[in-house]
Amino acid sequence: MKTLTTLLFTLIFSVFANAQDVLPNLQLENLEGKTIALQDISKDGQLIVVSLWATWCVPCKNELDAIGEVYADWMDETNVKLYAISVDDSRTVKRVKPLVSGKGWEFEVLLDTNGDLKRLLNAPTVPVTLIVKDNKILFRHSGYAPGSEEELYEKIKEFSK
Questions:
Q1: Quick check: helix, strand or coil at residue 53?
Q2: Strand-strand pairing, 128-133 and 47-53
């Protein structure tokens, strides 16, 4: 019985682990209302950073502010592209566009108002930051502390080689 339980646990764990190894095939809208297929943002060897965030999440905004200050340099040096995906629901999504505009963030912002991506990535809290290449998740980090963006950049440089 113990062997059967262990086998079942291993099988379930591997299914969930494999599900998190690739960027889900979802359609999200950008701030202009255009539909973007997630599978299309990370193809042809393009290295991308996906940051799940919300307007009510102070660490999320702090992380995106910190990245926003160095994002142009990151793009010049590594050709990385950032997609900040808001998980604000229908009650708070109206705050996203004014916040992004006020912050002057230069990266692409997408909306996950139903929480589908958050659910598929098994991300119970935000911020969650991913590095993705050819739809494969290469790096995953939850939470934010000042300086985390430096660790993220080191990983970006490592994966862009």
A1: strand
A2: antiparallel
